[in-house]
Amino acid sequence: MDVRQRIDEAMERAMARTKVPGAPPLLAEAMRHALFPGGGRFRPRLSLAVAAACGDDAPAASDAVAVAIEMMHCASLVHDDLPCFDDAETRRGQTSVHAKYGEPLAVLTGDGLIVLAFQTVVAGAAAVPDRMVRLLDLIGEAVGTPRGIIAGQAWESEPEVDLAAYQRAKTGALFSAATMAGAVAAGGDPEAWRRLGESIGEAYQVADDLRDVVVDPDEMGKPGGQDAALGRPSAVAELGLKGAVKRLEGLLADGVSSIPRDCKGREMLRDLILKEAQRFLPKDLAKNAA
């Protein structure tokens, strides 16, 4: 089965919980709007690739982790788009959740996705209960405080911002969870995959800072220029365009080099990361930074 198809089918199974008798239909519709059609699904694809590299002996658990990671990511996007943060009207080329369904339902949509993510892991990892607790802890750490995506969002309200801590929390934490939880779901050692997640996560945030400056909003599927307009910390503001590109390239190289040498899926993972890097740094972006 194609990996994207595997992710989407697992997502559909998890979303079945939201459409049962007595459940509010608009909330289910808004949650689906936040999840589908989706972006590149890089986080769940990365998680499944690590699980495969570790043997993938419990595919239901691996699927659950991949889905949970993507749900957490989508929940963060729903909340990030709210009027109290970015006040974005579009996301992934379509109307943002709050613009389509209203602010109250958007808040509940993000909350609902976070809770459903944990429920999905519990259901999917039921056959490997010895791994379930570690999975829940890893994902919870990536979302909450002191270094998860909630903490990352909170840095934007601080008078002084530690850019490295901000980027690690807002973006890197969920990538670390994707690699480490992917390993745990398959019975692997999560620490062997921490550096890969951290490097790719920080690279993704640097790339997002770059795209915010030079890529057309229609290509991004969301408004551009938000970092400068909102006074948000940014790798471009701190390092300049060329410096940010060099930082991105260094992080990607570090991530690839961190893949365990004895990993039988090393080349597959390397190809996935390098292919995704083409989306990180489009040709026009590289030209602008030259």
Please provide a written account of the structure.
With 290 residues, the chain is mainly α. The protein is built from 15 helices and two strands. The chain has one domain (3-289): Orthogonal Bundle (Farnesyl Diphosphate Synthase). Strands 1-2 form a two-stranded antiparallel sheet. A hairpin with a 2-residue loop joins strand 1 (90-91) and strand 2 (94-95). Helix 1 (3-15) crosses helix 4 (59-80) and helix 3 (42-53) crosses helix 9 (163-185). The chain is globular.
CATH class: Mainly Alpha
Which percent range fits the helix content? over 70%
What would the CATH topology be? Farnesyl Diphosphate Synthase
Shape: globular
- The pLDDT mean sits at 89
The number of helical segments is 15
Question: Using only CA atoms, what is the Rg?
Answer: 18 Å
Main sheet characteristics: 2 strands, antiparallel
CATH H-level superfamily? Farnesyl Diphosphate Synthase
Q: What topology, given as strand order, has the largest sheet?
A: 1-2
Order of helices and strands: HHHHEEHHHHHHHHHHH
